[in-house]
Structures are given as C-alpha cells and as structure tokens.
Amino acid sequence: MENTSILKAQSPAALAEEYLVKSIWNNHFPADSDLPAERELAERIGVTRTTLREVLQRLARDGWLHIQHGKPTRVNNIWETAGPNIISTIIKLDKNYLPVVISNVVSLRTRMAEAYIPEAVKFSPQECVKLFDGLENLENTATAYAEFDYKLFRQFTFLAKKPVYALILNSFKSMYHQVAKIFFNDSSNRQLTLNFYRSLLAACLTGDSQKASICMAKNRQSSGEIWKKLSVNVHETLGEL
Predict the structure, then answer these.
(1) Alpha helices in 68-186 (DSSP H)
(2) Is residue 88 included in any domain, yes or no?
(3) 0.85 surpassed by pTM
(4) 40 within domain boundaries
(5) Using an 8 Å Cβ cutoff, are 35 and 73 in contact?
(6) Is residue 3 a part of any domain in this protein?
(7) What secondary structure letter does DSSP report for 6?
(8) One domain for residues 55 and 157
(9) Along the 241 residues of the chain, how does pLDDT read in single tens digits?
(10) Based on the number of CB atoms within 10 Å of its own CB, is 15 exposed (0-12), middle (13-18) or buried (19 or more)?
C-alpha cells in the first residue's frame, strides 16, 4: 500500500484504522463497494475481530463507512458523508490538499463572521465589549494571537445567538490554530489584526452594527491579499501537522 508511514499507527486499533483509511483513500476499497467479511479483514490486518469492530464503528461515525446490521459494511464517498473532523487525516494522506483546505478554512471563518459579528454587536454591544478584555496586554506572539482570535470569533457566535456556528468552529479548532499561526507569524500581520480588533471594539462601544460590517469587510480584503502570498509557500510554512 502507498505511503505506509503516513498515519504512523502505534496500536492494533490504530493499525486497523490506518489500513482501512488508506485503503479507502487509495481506492483499494472504492466508494460504494463492500468491505471484506470481518473475519477475513481482521486476519488480513492482524488484529482481533473485537478491535476491528471498534474501528469500523469509529470510521462509520466519521463518515468513512456505512454499517447496517446483517449486511456487508459499505464504503462511503467521504466527500458526501464525512464532516470537518477528518480534515487533518486528509492532509496527512495527501499534502496537495493543504492549500485548498487552508483557503476553505479561512474563507468559511471570515464569511461566517461577517454574518454573525454585526448581529452580535446589534443584539449585545456591551457584552461584545467584554470579549476584548486583555486586548491591550495581548502577548505579541503568533500563538497568543491565534488563541485570542479563535476565542474572540467563537464567543461572538453566542452573543449573536448562533451557537451552531460555534460547533462549526469547534470542528476544525486544531486546523484553525495552525492556520492562524501561519498568518500571525509575521509581526506586520499581528499589527494589522490588532488595528482590526481595535476598530471592531470601537463599533461595539457605540453599538454600531453597520460600522462592524464595514470593519469586517475591510479586514477580509486586507487579510485576503496577504493569504494569496502566503499560500505560495504554505507547505514549508505549516510543516508537519
């Protein structure tokens, strides 16, 4: 099988998951096909049937497989059935997806925020102001900015009465932090974002949702140009996930 060291299995369950995921990804078990019988598959991988069943259940929850009692386990088309939680696995399987994933994560985060942050400012301006506590003492490092940014954007979802958006952010939290660190690794980008935070805070202080919308749009435009440049060397910048 190709790329046998990618997922680096360290236990029988991890070995079974590695085998199955890479077999599906490399089309050895194509979408809409049936997996071999449990006994045969367990022997092929070298794990117990109990371990295999646990792995099959987990992969089914993640969208890789469809399990139906009394019938063979079916391989899914992950692009139709899986959720954002498998993003990291996809990148480990094929680094060529990295630029696309990062572009999508950045776009999703930004477009969602443009919708819900002005609403939060409109509904709860005073509570929005509190989200910026500690801003002026924010440590000038990529990690600190990444953590502050995630927390800020996530907390805004609740003030906007959009808790499902918080769940979406939760689903790619790890990727969000890694992507944010790429951006914030440059001190000029941290300064740009600090200015953005201050402008957004000013909108919150006056309860001006329209000003917040303008602020969000300007930030999308300025940061978008930076991301175009960063995406050129994203493989080297991000390193190992």
Answers:
(1) 78-81, 87-93, 98-123, 125-130, 142-159, 163-171, 173-184
(2) no
(3) no
(4) yes
(5) yes
(6) no
(7) S
(8) no
(9) 444 444 555 799 999 999 999 999 999 999 999 999 999 999 999 999 999 999 999 999 999 999 988 899 999 999 999 988 888 888 889 888 877 877 888 888 889 999 999 999 999 999 999 999 999 999 999 999 999 999 999 999 999 999 999 998 998 888 889 889 989 999 999 999 999 999 999 999 999 999 999 999 999 998 888 877 776 665 555 554 4
(10) middle
CATH of the domain at 146: 1.20.120.530
> Do 110 and 159 fall into the same domain?
yes
User: Does 69 map to a domain?
Assistant: yes
For residues 113 and 206, membership in a common domain is answered with yes
Q: Please give the Cα distance from 135 to 137 (Å, whole number).
A: 5
Residues 131 and 214 in one domain: yes
Q: How far apart are CA 75 and CA 115, in angstroms?
A: 36
For the chain, the straight-line distance linking the first and the last C-alpha, in angstroms and rounded, comes to 22
Are both 75 and 99 inside the same structural domain?
no
The amino acid at residue 200 is L
Element (H, E) at 210: helix 209-230
Quote the number of domains for the chain. 2
Residue 78 belongs to domain spanning: 12-82
CATH code, domain carrying 19: 1.10.10.10
DSSP code per residue over 29-92:
S-TTPBPPPHHHHHHHHT--HHHHHHHHHHHHHHTSEE--TTSPPEEP-HHHH--GGGHHHHHH
Token pair listed for 37? 């019988």
- Residue-wise burial string across 159-180, b where 16 or more C-beta atoms lie within 10 A, e elsewhere: bbebeebbebbeebeebbebbb
